[in-house]
Amino acid sequence: MSRTANTDERFGAGGALECGTLDVPVDYRDPHGRTIELAVSRLRSTVPAKRRGVLLVNPGGPGVAGLDLPVVLAQRGAPASLLNWYDLIGFDPRGVGHSSPVSCGLSPEQRAVAFGTYAHGPADVAKQAGSAEEIANQCVATGGENFAVPDDEEHRARYGPDPEGTR
Asked: Pairing mode, if any, of strands 35-43 and 17-25?
């Protein structure tokens, strides 16, 4: 892991957000294969003598960066006990923020569908399923080297047969 200290004063004396990258395998079935970088951060506990461990905070998503999430939580009033007892670990998921990029070449219309459109009924679900499949195929075709895509046999073994018969 490479590490650099962030000197932004918003993080407070002794509470600087430490940032770095981790090399992780694209496919955990091949841990010595090709890797990508994930950007990670740590906001150290404010009372190291009482430190109990670390907590990984997840930005949610899809497409949400979380490198600064530990500081955001601290600034928004996280309980003192949490900040005293735990190092908070943030990260940018693959393809987001400072982690290895993934570009699917999505149009603005596709981005609107992929990130933030909610279905209001069965017709919307069917329409969005078709759009999601189109986007997934486009991502695999244009950015597939950064995705670990299970083969159909593994997918069926893990999740069962496709009830619609579309796989």
From this structure: antiparallel
